[in-house]
Amino acid sequence: MTRLGVSVSANRSDYAVPPDHPSSLEQEIAARVDQELKQCLDDAAEGIHWVGPDGTILWANATELQMLGYSRDEYIGHHIAEFHVDQPVIDDILVRLARGETLLNYEARLRRKDGSVRDVQINS
């Protein structure tokens, strides 16, 4: 397998793709960029998660897991409402997101594994 030094960039022209092997090289570059982006998200200073349309947590970064005290298995695959202290708040968040609204600094309270409550601001 060829090792590539790839920097994350929005400009695809940053990558010189030889015309004789565009398919495999482009796939390798895309896989590497995907891996690097996932690593950046996982290492972010803020908690980040992705939730499906039904409210199921699909992915969470290490920062969020550490902040709340859960392992990946205890968090991923669960409904996001399980971790919110205030049911009306998460209901409102999910309705707004389903309508395509953007949330900025939306205040919420999340329950940590140890039972303590963490005040957070949600941007989505």
Outline the structure in words.
This protein has 124 residues and is α+β, with helices and mostly antiparallel strands. The protein is 35% helix and 15% strand. It folds into two domains: 31 residues; 74 residues, 2-Layer Sandwich (Beta-Lactamase). The protein is built from four helices and four strands. It has a two-stranded antiparallel ribbon. The chain has a two-stranded antiparallel sheet with strand order 3-4. The longest helix is centred in the N-terminal third of the chain and has 21 residues.
- H and E string: HEEHHHEE
How much β-strand is present in the residues? 15-25%
Poorly predicted tracts of residues: 1-15
Shape: globular
Q: Tell me the number of helical segments per DSSP (H or I, 4 or more residues long).
A: 4
Rounded Rg = 19 Å
Short structural summary:
The chain is an alpha+beta fold. The chain has helices at residues 22-42, 62-68, 72-75, 87-98; strands spanning 49-51, 57-60, 106-111, 117-122.
Keywords:
globular; alpha+beta; Beta-Lactamase; about 120 residues; two-stranded antiparallel ribbon
How would you summarize the topology of this molecule?
Blueprint: H1 22-42, E1 49-51, E2 57-60, H2 62-68, H3 72-75, H4 87-98, E3 106-111, E4 117-122
Antiparallel strand pairs: 1-2, 3-4
